[in-house]
Protein 1
Amino acid sequence: MISFDQVTFSYQDATEPVLRNVSMEIPEGELALVVGHTGKGKSTLLNLVNGMAPHFTGGTLAGRVSVADRSTADFAPREMADLVGVVRQDPAAGFVTDIVEDELAYTMESLAVPADVMRRRVEETLDLLGLASLRNRPLRTLSGGERQRVAIGSVMTAQPSVLVLDEPTSALDPQAAEEVLAAIQRFVHDLGLTVLMSEHRLERVVQYADSVVCLTGRGEVTRDSNPAHAMISAPVAPPVVELGRWAGWDPLPLSIRDARRQAASLRQDISVRITDVPNVETGSESETTEAVADVSHASINRGGRVVLRSIDFRVSPGEVVALMGRNGSGKSTFLQMLSGSTSPSAGQVSVRGLNPTQLEGTELVTTVGMVPQEPALMLWAESVEAECAAADRTSELADGSTLALFQRLRADIDPQMHPRDLSEGTRLALVVALVASAAPDLLLLDEPTRGLDYSAKVTLTELLRELAAHGQAVVVATHDVELVAAVCTRVVMIGDGDIVLDADANTAATASPAFAPQVAKVLNPLPLLTLAAVQAAVATEPHRPSDGAVR
Amino acid sequence: MIAALTTPRLVHPGAWWLWALGLAVAAARTTNPLLLLMIAVAAGVVVAERRVPGPWGRSYIAFAKFGLLVIAIRVVLEIFLGAPNFGPTLFSLPEIPLPEWMAGVQLGGPVTVAGLLQAVFDGLRIAVLLVCIGAANSLVNPSRLLRIVPAALYEVGVAVVVCMSTAPILVSDAARIREARRLRGRSTSGLRSWSQMAMPLFSGALERSVALAASMDSRGYGRTAGIPRKARLTTSALLLLGLIGMLIGLYGLLDGSTPGVAGVTVIGWPMLLLGVALAATGSLLAGKRVSRTRYRPDIWGLPEWLIVTCGVIPAVGFVLLGSNPALTGPTYPFGWPEIPLAALPLLLVAALPAVLAPPLPRQNDAANEQQPERTAVTA
């Protein structure tokens, strides 16, 4: 269905091609998953399918990309619209109209589909994607998962043979991701749609893939129609695959179910070695130490709606708190309240005994640091170096301290680069460096792992752990249970404006499947959350309580 | 036939706009404050019965407030800049002598009752015109109006839609950038910081526009399907000229002081008809070569004809009443304004759509006006 024939693609001003001599054929009805590190050409590969590259993005294409024998060299993207549906990373950025129903019809209007056919297809699509109750809703009032489903529906009404999805679930909470993936599955199974999809959150999608298209870097692309085989050597892998690789399981498990079947002996092996719940985190005695932040009976109302209801919350030095809950449950508002961007309608918030809304300048940056959901908003200088120098001045640090911290996170970045040209992960690292260099007592991060691949996540994890060791308190709003397992000491869950759970991370992760990382699910009921913990447990002597360093 | 009027459905946007314009034409023909207020009330009754839910439905009130502001400004201007008027003087401001070349303008000086009343009536007339436009906006979501833009002007329509959906995002972006700046310990006031905040704001808007353009392109926007460029240009030109003609015609109808014969202005109806003819030709030409179709096009049926009639009758009536002195608000000597009996049925007709127009279909979502937290994603 999709065929690449000796394709080499390079952007203008680039010294090396992004893709080099790629030849592959993706047959009809296949769900192909594109796997690779950030910045290695995943988006370019997806853009090539309908001709956005090079028609829209510029660059030089050698070789031939064709879908159902229509070559992108002869057809512009708009002439491919009836054949290829494309949904980009941020669905909201691609919405043309303002009502769900009109958005679903937009592509068909462009393709001059007769009115009665349009009407019928819109009804079918509303049902297929479970959007019927939303048909009259303005698009801006939809949640993330609903937006993604509308975006998929809006290209599916044109009945394309190929659907191209760029990170369809990266920004979604687990529930919304399920809905979107279920919809994609239905298209693949019921309609025989060919899907080419990239996704950072491999743990969500790899078990559904029929084949894996692997970008190894240096422009090479391989396609393997046996995902389990492909994942053995893939440059990025979800925790369950990492565990399988380490344990040498064959075939390599891609889902929890497969892994559990093969994990019986490993579970047995570990259970004789640990007899006790490895209680690693002892630094969270909020009664004895002075709290960094203290929230008491804080409520926030917005437009007649209660966003947060009489919240009590304390965080001590050295704690890394995960703030969880579905989209729109009030996590971001909670962080805004701690950072002083929003003042509570009732109740008290204090950070180091100060009211965060009153702080400004140097005092603010050394007390509270906040990494917002869209790091790009924090950047306005002309180069990475200038951004870092500005942070040095505000935080009254020695020249070059911030840049040094950034280069620890990302050594390979030229300090003269414009912040807008950085990849999303690098941009995040830059903002983290800008904020963390001031050594704020309280560091807040809003969804920091969105758009990060596994290796970038590891770097972030290490940094957060180090900050906590220095006695800084960290609060992370996240959906990412793997991040929570790797770094957090405590989990606070917000539901409809209330704190519904406040527990030790180990307890939370092993008690509820909703918070359990993949390794914990595979090894349940053993209280091990990460591969590192498993390795440590196996390395200990049998029948002796583990003496720490589980994470 | 009754069913056509009682079955809930959305009325064609054009019908509401033509009705509102009819009322505006009527309002433009009089300075009689009672008549003007009654026109505003007639529009208000219809809005109260048939307005759309959501923020647009509140346009009537918003435009009415704006109208009050216009009256206030008009009165203030009259007090300070008003030319000498006849009748008793209310109070006198010190007159400031102006240089020779500004002979026509007087700053300060005596303020007369008649002058003030004249200003109030003039301001009220403009206010009621605004109220009529507000009523149309309350009855029709402007994005639906854009859907009836002829295919040949489609590009213009899309640009407007994109603008309308981008503007609110820009405002929320500005707030978030300001907040991000505070979090980095920078001042958020002063010229320098504004210029630095503009940078991420504009580059963000630019990125969004590029993303939107990419999306539209990959969804088939601009498939020309073999229409020759010349034909497209011809239809666009016809339509634009037609629209301009209609605007001039409308202006002629609204402004009673344009030269005319027997109460009917020369640039009024003839220009309007010429504009309609040009636009219709353009639309027909464009329709011959369909390159795109329209989803759920708005229907034009009996209710639409009735609504438009309810707007046209008062408009024509007030134009015909043109010479009746009661249409002018009495300023000097002051007396209670009279209401010409003939105007009453006209106003009643203007309010009829409140019961004639089909009711709005019920929305199945209470969440229409509530906005959840923005769960934005950076591309």
Protein 2
Amino acid sequence: MNAGADREADSADHDADAATGTDPATGTDPATGTDPAAGTDAEWRRLDPRTVRTSLLTVAGVCVAAGAAIGFGIGSMSLFWTLVTVLPASAAALAGAVVVERVRLHKTRYRVLPDRVELTKGIVVRTRRSISRDRIRTVDLTAGPPARFFGIATVKIDTGEQSPESSLSLHAVARAEGERLRADLLDRGRRDGAPRGDGRLATFDPRWMRYAPLSIVTPVLGVAAYGAVLQVARMFGLESDVLWVFDLLGRLGVAGGLALVVAVGVVIGVIGSLGLFAEMWWNYRLDREPGGTLRVRRGLVTARSISLEEQRLRGVELVEPLGVRTVGAARVDAVTTGLRTQGENEDKERKTLLPAAPRGEAERVVAAVLAEEAGPTSAALTRHPVAARGKRIGWALGAVAVPVAALAAIGLLYSWPAGLHLAWIGAVVGAAIAVALALDAYRNLGHGLSGDYLVARHGAVRRSTVALQRRGVVGLTARQSLFQRRRGLMTITATTAAGSGAYSVYDVGADEGLVFADEAVPGLFGPLLERRG
Amino acid sequence: MTVGAADSGTGGAGTLRLRPPVHRVDRRAVTWWRTRILLAGAAPVIVLVVLGSLLSEARWWLMVPAVAVAVATAAAAAGMPMWWYRVHRWEVTGDAVYTRTGALWQEWRVAPLSRVQTVDSERGPLEQAFGLASVTVTTASAKGALTIPGLDHRRATDLVHALTEATQATPGDAT
């Protein structure tokens, strides 16, 4: 209670100081002379007033879009009535936005102290949040088109913990102020005396765009487009028009109609995936900064800046989804602590250090990020026993057999010949694909040591090669099913604080796996090993 | 070191394997596991039998699954607890916690004390009835927790105590 009251009084003092003319830009006012240790950053600062204009622009955009939708969508309404309803509503929304944003700006203050960052905000309920500077893991800047136009950016300061109190968002401050905050708050590595050479590690190449349509996004968008058309048609009661299109397709015959539908879907999917990729990755740059941070900057319309502390980096993962792998490209993800891996899509994208790029470029970036001569992900890996191949083929065929058997059973029970035909076609095609994937999955299994890194590779549809810092391993797990025990196989898992929390070497020979685990992380399995017989 | 029948590890002569941890779980864990299986199986069986006796038309379709579930439950209750009892072992070596768990899928887990973040013990209602407790040791990894089920509750308390002290005495920031 007491402390809270003191703080409020303190904050009131600072407000008074601000009113008497402390320039927030330069931040120094010798006259205030409060806490000398607190330095120049001690006074409370406000958000940038341009935030109001930015919000206004955003709301105006929404109003125009909504007005257009109402005007065109509801055909029965005359222009006059459209204007009569839309204009006052828009005016009210704009006025409301200005008032709310003004008050919010007035009520929000933040300050950077030597040991912590504080934010007070709230119109009805006042909240005061304080984050210890030691705990800050990332400082990200984001600016949508209106914000970029006005030269401001939203700053998100995050400790990477799984609670809502662990992050602090400043919406929005001047871009220069955001950059300064970012540099300030992340500049810790320097003290450890290990600032490595600064500079550009990778730059966007427009030719990488050709990998975008090969991702899963393409079919998903293609299917979603049809769903969206039907949804909108239903909303405006235009289903009959849509059905008329189906009639037209019917005249092309089953094959022709299907081909057209698929072709249109693919075109939409390709355009969509190209657009998304460009929005996410255009202007991509990866830098190593003097403070000991890796910084990714990217985005066509919305500019994003994502920083990762190198101290928190426990390794990298080279990810090759099937489509991208067939044309020899790969993506690089960071394996790092203090980065939320669950949550919104945006959070998942944050760990990506390099989008799909030629494999050679990816290897180069891996080496550069880890500051190694040669990237550990390109090291030669030890193959796994043949028994692992049999297991994969068995599982793959089993996965095909279940639906095929169900289809065949239905076909027999209800004497439905088409079902039986589908069953044997599915069995032939499915088995071929399954075996091909299983063989590929077996070929991709591998493990090895490369300098300070433990390297493990697996997967066919999504091939992953992870290079994990050996001293980042916080535990080991060995796992054996009955089947594995009979065939002398074992799965070794290294647990770590970073990334997904555990990285596995699948179906390695039991002897070899245990020796490898002991070599990779000495002292864990070593004292527990014994030789039998 | 006693090597039981279920300790036939990786098999074959001259092969390398992880030795079984020293301590078994409490003998009462067998009864606890058995009770748990029986309770879990009894719930659907009772529902099916009650419905079956009420709905005469669907009796056949309800009674057959009820019998199947009952048989499976009885088989599991007879076999699994002893199997688990043979496999489940734990040990605190000088600088690490070491457990072996599972049955069809066996798992050996090691976490060095320097990386241990929290040590908890937990007692559900059934465990309380049998005087048992489970101890969970977590590390900084989201997937690295070790659980030792079915310990005598006093022993579990002592273990939590000892581990907490040992972890505090071991330097390191656990990540």
Protein 3
Amino acid sequence: MTDQKAVPAQDAVHDTVDSIDRLDSTDKPRNLNKTLLVPLFVFLSLVAILAIGFQLEDPHKLPSVLIDRPFPEFAMRELHDAQRTVTQNDFKGEVSLVNVWATWCPNCVMEHPQLTAIAASGVPLYGINYNDVDEKAKGWLQRYGDPFTFNIVDDQGKLGIDLGVYGAPETFVLDKNGVIQYKHIGEVTQRDWLITIKPLIEQLEHDS
Amino acid sequence: MHRAGFLLTAALMFGCLTFGHHANAAIDAYAFPDETLRDRYNGLIDELRCPQCLNTNLAGSDAMVAKDLRREVHRLVLEGKSDDEVLEFMYERYGDFILYEPRFKRGTWLLWLGPIALLLLALFFGIRFSRLSNQVSNLTEDEDRKIDQLLKSQESSADK
């Protein structure tokens, strides 16, 4: 019985709700929903940009600020010939590679065959023995072979700091004037050599 | 009770922001002729980031390069270099990464201005949203009365 009484009242409520809907629709409530989507959109695009950005580059590989700058000045002892002092001028004349290595660095052992092959192909390869001990370094070269034209002794890591080095191995490509053209961080693999470094060296030899 | 909890949370968050980076893991026995130089040295190694580690300052890192760089900071400070000169020395060699507070230039402006832009955007939409939800009903008095009546009749019929 109560149901029958309630029915007309509910119909009237429906009518009123309809009329409210009509009133509101002239007052653009739909726009309200759309503007409220903007923050969500901004947030999602920010997430997308950051997600892509974080994957784009290995955060461990810092860009070098030394590209296009002359190799920092230095005058340091050579590993095998303590009487000999080498300087940045010794790099000039040919396109060359300068490799930062140490006996405490496992990746240096891994990249050594590749470096040996590069040196054998005729590219001058210079070593910086970084934060190391002379005797250990000599033993290491005896064991794995010595592809370096000469080795600079940087037992205090001073030249390393001037080069922005933060680990080993790191490899620099210099042009004929001893200007830094490229820096490779980490092990030089055959892939790195064939795809990046070799074409760059050929181009640099061609340019000047 | 709620208020106390809120204040505590706010204090802790503020504490994280201001004192969070004073972690000194490495202790080098460097000599300083006076305490001002030691304070400046400590300030600098706090401010510079270790290039090998992704998020540790020179003061907190045991990495070899961090040790070398602390030694350089010590040397430069003793040589009479100003804080700016030390930071410039590091910046020339290691670039933006070494500074925890990146310089304002092309490529970093978004980093500096982005949060401000986001804050303004949030304020804009916050105000807009609160205004919209507080909007007074746009029914006429007549319609209001009608709804009240209907609701009342609804209640009384439900009571029975």
